[in-house]
Amino acid sequence: MTTDEARQAYDAREWQRAHDLYASEPYLDATDLDRFAIATMLLAEMDEYFAVRERAYNQAIEEGDLVEAAGAALWIGMQRLTMGDPGRGMGWMARAADLVEQDGSDSIPAGVLLMGQAFGAVATGDFDGALALTAQAIAAGRRLRAPDLLALALHQEGQFLLHAGRVDAGVARLDEAMLALTAGDLSPMVTGIIFCGSIEGLWSVHELWRAQQWTAAMTEWCDAQPDLRNFTSECKVRRAELKHLHGAWDDAWAELAGVSPSDVDLWAAGAAACLRGNLDRLQGRYDSAQENFSEAARLGFDPQPGLALLRLAQGSIQAAAAMARRCLAEAEGDAKRVEVLFAAVEILLAAGESQPAADAVAELVGIATRRPISIVTTTSAHADAALHLASGRADVALRSARTALRGWLEMNAPYQEARARLLVADACQVLGDGESAKVDREAARRILIELAAAPDLARLDGEQDVLSPRELEVLRMLATGATNRAIAEKLVLSERTVDRHVSNIFSKLGVSTRAAATAYAFERELV
Q1: Structure-derived torsion over alpha carbons of residues 498, 499, 505, 510, reported in degrees to the nearest 10
Q2: How far apart are CA 28 and CA 7, in angstroms?
Q3: Spatial CA neighbour of 345 closest among 397, 403, 296, 300
Q4: Phi-psi bin for 308: left (phi > 0), alpha (psi -120 to 50), beta?
Q5: How far from 223 is each of 16, 58, 59, 175, CA to CA, in Å?
Q6: 8 Å CB contact between 61 and 46
């Protein structure tokens, strides 16, 4: 009866009860051992998970069932690899391959093994070979009427296509895998894997509308399983990212509260620390931001470009610029690249490095041309506006700034909306339209107050007529077009000191670009 009760608990998604009942049984058949392993994995008890899979493997070997033994070995190997244990992972994968070869039948493990071989092909740069292997796995899933294999293979092919730059085809494959998921035909473990992998893939190519839809579906799936402890952290991070974008910063903090480092999902813990760092930075808690970015790095998650933007906010412009240049020199996928390029434009313009900033904008425009997704085209327009404003082309800047503003409004991204409004205001101010500039500054101020974005408010509402004599001297030279380095040489100061003076000037004048500071200087006849 205990086994029957365990099966009932499993079907009801009562993972802890199913686990406890299965654990009390001295003998379980292959199907129940698989269910026992899945329940254990969903509870995030990974040491026990591997023990149950090894129990299933040893039992299958004793019973002469090569297919079951291969299946257990494959799950151990794949999970070990996922958790960063290549030695044992590859050992179990090799053991599974031997069993599949000995069996020689058209089996589900043989199809899953093709997927493992596809990952190996990708590791050597053979994308065509990887796609061919995955196509065979998809065919096997259809032929064997194996929903888990089919969905995993579709998901894998979608990921490979995305990484190869074939975005539309990749997204279509992910959609197909997700349809299999929503039909309810997949095991709970495979459901979690496909949810997380597909949402990550959609984020990587800026398909935020789809990512938001699937994140909502994953939330419902997680909420329906109170015992679930695996996959939940990544779901929380994705929800927090969306809430961050949409200006619900307190709600984003609440989502991240339950995410902490674990062997199961280091990625989620690192991503959560980085997002906390960015929220701290935007609300002026710089010491806490530094701690969170350091924690992200410790967990193996790159804290850039948030860390560089933190240095910029702290007035360490050259340190920020050095970080930005280093990030730009690295090869990255478009998703990370867009984020880095956008931050680099802001940082390099603050450092007076107009040509590298222009190069970054040109690259952003190129990505937007290849992938005309709303967030990419809007980011590109925003960066273009900042560049032209800094270059003295306020008329061109105004057109791009208004394009960016429309895009951020459509995406319900209030913080970026406020920043775009400040660009519009700066451009209007330079063009002599002070009344329009005032309207957009006030609209931006209201948003920033609601978000508690203290550093941006300080720059906007700083004491505008309290420049020190040295700051006035720096402003006069800045207004002539001199770079920070040239100003440092002329005034016999260190470049770091000039960086600090420029940052203070921007804050006190409530401007965000050199062009707007120049307009201020000319309006008051300081030049």
Answers
A1: 170
A2: 11
A3: 397
A4: alpha
A5: 15, 35, 35, 22
A6: no
Contacts of 167 (CB under 8 A, 6+ apart): 161, 205, 371
Q: Which of 508, 500, 472 is nearest to 484 (CA)?
A: 500
Q: With contact defined as beta carbons under 8 Å apart, do 394 and 427 qualify? A: yes
Q: How far is CA 274 from the centre of its chain?
A: 10
Supply angle C-alpha 453, 454, 455, rounded to 5: 100
CA-nearest of 188, 183, 214 to 201 is 214
Quick check: 103 and 67 in contact, CB under 8 A? yes
One-letter identity of residue 405: L
Phi-psi category of residue 84: left, alpha or beta, with phi > 0 → left and psi -120 to 50 → alpha: left
Angle of CA points 431, 433, 436, to nearest 5°: 130
Q: CA-to-CA distance for 28 and 31, rounded, in angstroms?
A: 8
Distances (CA, A) of 116 to 77, 93, 111, 231, 246: 9, 8, 9, 22, 38
pLDDT attached to residue 125: 85
Fill in the amino acid letter for 211: A
Residues of the chain with pLDDT under 50: 463-465
Angle ∠(396,398,403) on CA atoms, nearest 5: 105
Q: Which residues contact 35 (CB under 8 A, 6 or more apart)?
A: 6, 7, 10, 18, 22
Two tokens, residue 290: 């530094």
Sorted by sequence, the CB contacts under 8 Å of residue 451 that are 6+ apart come out as 247, 249, 282, 283, 414, 415, 418
The distance from CA 255 to its chain's CA centroid, rounded to whole angstroms, is 15
User: Could you give phi then psi for residue 351, rounded to 5 degrees?
Assistant: -85, 0
The angle that helices 188-204 and 147-163 make with each other, rounded to 10 degrees, is 20
Peptide bond connecting 455 to the previous residue in cis, omega within 30 degrees of 0: no
Half-sphere exposure in the Cβ direction for 446 (13 Å, CA) = 6
Amino acid identity of residue 95, one-letter, is R
Cα separation of 476 and 315, whole Å? 20
Looking at 371-464, list the stretches that DSSP marks H as alpha helix, in order from N- to C-terminal side.
374-390, 394-410, 414-430, 434-451, 454-461
